[in-house]
Amino acid sequence: MVTVTAPAQTVPWWRRLGRPGIVAAILLGWIVFGTALHGRHTLSLAVSEQTALHDQFSSFYRWIDTNRYSNPFFTGFLEAVRSGIDALTTFLRELISQPSAGRPVPVIGWLGVVALATLAAYAFGNGRVAVLTAAGFVSLGLLGWWQESMDTLAQTLAAVGICLLVGIPLGVLVGLSRRAQQAVTPVLDVMQAMPPLVYLLPLTLFFLIGPTVAVITTIIFAAPPVIRLTALGVRRADAAAVEASRSLGSTRWQRLRTVRLPLARRTIVVGVNQTIMCALSMVTIAGIIGGPGLGAVIIGALSALDMNRMFTSGLAIVIIGVVLDRVTTAASERQRAGARPAAVRARRIVLIVGGAATLVAVYLSNTYLRFSVFPGGSPGGAIGDPLGNAAEAVSDWAKANLFVVTDAILKAVSYGLLNPLQGLLAQSPWYVVCAAILGLVWTIAGARSVVLAAVCLALLLASGLWEASMVTLTSALVATLIVVALGVLFGVVLAHNRRTDLVLRPVLDAAQVMPPFVYLVPVLGLFLPTRLTAIIAAVVFAAPVATKIVADGVRAVPATVVEAATASGSSRWQVIRKVELPMARHAIVLAANQGLIYVLSMVVIGGLVGGGALGYLVVAGLAQSDVRGKGLAAGIAIVVLAVLLDRVTQAAARRTEESAQHSAGAVT
Asked: In this structure, is residue 592 part of a structural domain?
C-alpha cells in the first residue's frame, strides 16, 4: 500500500500544528484572555439568591407535597412499588434480624445465619472463603453490632437482588445492541452522577421516610455498575470464538449462552462486586432517611462526635463488604478453574455434611434463645470498645502531631494546583471559558462532540450556577486525575502479583464501603474544612473502583499474547506499556469513566467538609425549604458536568483508537 502525503503548503496551518500544538495554543489563549479579564462576567450568585428556574423547581417540590395523598399516580403505581419493596425488606429483616410472627427473635438466629453464610461461601467459593465468612460474621457480634449488621445485610440483599435481577439482563442487551447502549448510557450517567441527597427529597415525598426509600435510593445508585460491566464483558467477547460458534450454526441465543456469557463471567462478577460495594456505601445515606442498621448508628455517633461508635460500626460495614466480595470473586475463579473428579467427590461430601450441620444450627437458632441472640451482643461487645478506643487515640495523636506536615501539603496543593486551575475556570469570563472548552473538545474529541458540549454548557448557564459549576469542575478534575493515576498504578500491580492483590484488596474494599464520615472526622482534624478534604474523600471512594476495573482488564489480556511478547525479548515494563495497557484500553477508559462518576457522586459529601460550590448548595437545599429549588438545580448541574466529561473522554478515546488503527493500516 502506498501512502500519498499532500504538500505542506496545501495543509492548513492549524493542521500542521498537530493536536498537541492546537491544545497548547488554546490553553495559552485561555490563560491570556482569562488573566486580562479576570473576575469579569463570572456570573456569580450568592447562596441566598435564586433565579426564576430555581423558583419553578421549588414549586415542583410543593406540588409533590400537596398531591402525595390524592394523585392516582402516587396512590396507585408508586404505592404498589413501595408495598412490594417494603414486603421484601420486611421479609428479609424478620428472617435474620427483627422479631417475627409474635416471637421476640427472628426466624433464624445468629448461629443459623453464621452456618448458612459459611455453607454458601463454601458452595460458591472454597474452604478459605468459608473460614473467612464464619470469622467475619462472628466478629460482627463481637463488635457489639449483630442486630444492626443483620438489618444492614437484609437491606443490602434486597437492593442488590433487585439490581441484579434487572441489571444483568439489561447489561446483556446494552452489550449486544448499539441503540440500546445509546439509549441507556445517559440514564446510567444520571443515576450515578446525581448525588443521592438530591433525589432523596422527592423520593421521601413519593414514598415517605423509611426502609423503602433507603432501598430505592440504593438501587438507583448501585445498579449502573453491574449494567455497565455486564455490557462491557458481553461486548468485548473474543470475536474469533463468536464467529466460530456462528459458523457451526448456533443461534444468537446459543452464542450468548455458550460463548459470550462464559467469556464475560469475570467482568460480570466485577460488576456484581461493585454493585455490592455501592449498596454498602449507601448505608449512611440510608440512615439519614430512616433506613435501619449500621447507617443509623453512624448518624447518631456523628451527631455526638463519638469516634468509638463510628469506627466500630464502620468496621462492621467493611467486614460485610469484604465477605460478600470474597464469596463472589471465589465463585468466579472456582468455576473458571474447574476441579479433578476426586476433588469434586470430596467437595460433595463436605457439602452434604455441612448442609446437615447447617440444618441443625438453623433449628437450634430458631428454638433456643442463646443460639438466637448473640451472647454479649450489646454495643461495645467483646472487642468493640478496645478497638474503638484505639482508633480514637490514633486520631487524636495524628491531629496533635501531624498538623505541621498536613498544613504544608494543604498549602502546596491549594496554591500550586487548585487556585490556579480554579482561577482559570471560575474567574475567567464565561464566554472565554466556553470558547476554550469548545475548542479543546473539537481538537481532542471531534466535531460531533462539540454539539453535545455546547448543549451542556448552555444548560450550565441556564441553571444560574455557572461559577459554582466551574469551582466544582476544578475539584472534580483534580480528583479524577489522581484516581486514574492510582487506578492504573495499583491495577497493574494487582494484576501481576497475587500476594499483593490479597493484601491490597481488603484495603480497597474498606476504602470503598467505609462510610465517608468515619474517616472524614480525623481528616478534618488534619486538613480542616477545605477543598483538599473534599478531594481526599472523593479519591478514597473512587480509586478502588478504578483499580479493580484496570486490574480486571489487564488480567483479561490473553496469556499467549504476553508470552509472545516476552519470547521476543521484551522486558516486563515493555510488556506492560506496549501490550497489556493498550489491550486493556477499554477497561482503562471505563475505569476513568467510573472514577469520574464516583468523584462527582461525592460532591455533596465534599460540600459538607469544605468543598463548597454545587455540593454545598445541594446540602443547603435539603436544610432550607426556601432554597430547595436551587439545591435541585445544583444536583442537575452536577449531572450535566458528568455527562459532558464522560462523553468527551469516551469520544477522545475512540478517536485515538481509530487513529492508531488507521496508522497501523497505512504501514506497508
From this structure: yes
**Number of folded domains in the chain?**
1
- How far apart CA 644 and CA 460 sit, in angstroms, is 11
Question: How confident is the model over 533-583, as pLDDT tens digits?
Answer: 888 888 888 888 888 888 888 887 777 777 777 777 777 777 777 777 777
pLDDT score of 667: 43
Helices (H), 514-665: 516-527, 531-555, 559-567, 572-575, 581-583, 585-601, 603-608, 613-623, 628-665
CATH number at residue 596: 1.10.3720.10
Residue 1, domain member (yes or no): no
Q: Which domain holds residue 541?
A: 402-427+467-661
Closest CA to 513 of 598, 396, 606, 596: 598
pLDDT tens for 151-183 read 888 888 888 889 889 888 888 888 888 888 888
Q: What is the pTM of this model?
A: 0.72
Residue 320 domain flag: no
For 117-132, how does the pLDDT look when each residue is reduced to its tens digit (9 = 90+)? 999 988 887 888 899 9
How many Å is the Cα radius of gyration of the chain?
Answer: 26
* Rounded-to-integer distance, Cα 444 and Cα 439, Å: 9
Q: C-alpha angle with apex 198: 193 to 202, nearest 5 degrees?
A: 125
Does residue 578 lie in a domain region? yes
Residue in the structure block whose three cell numbers are 445517559:
186
How many CB atoms within 10 Å of residue 335? 14
Give, to the nearest 10 degrees, the angle between helix 516-527 and helix 307-337. 120
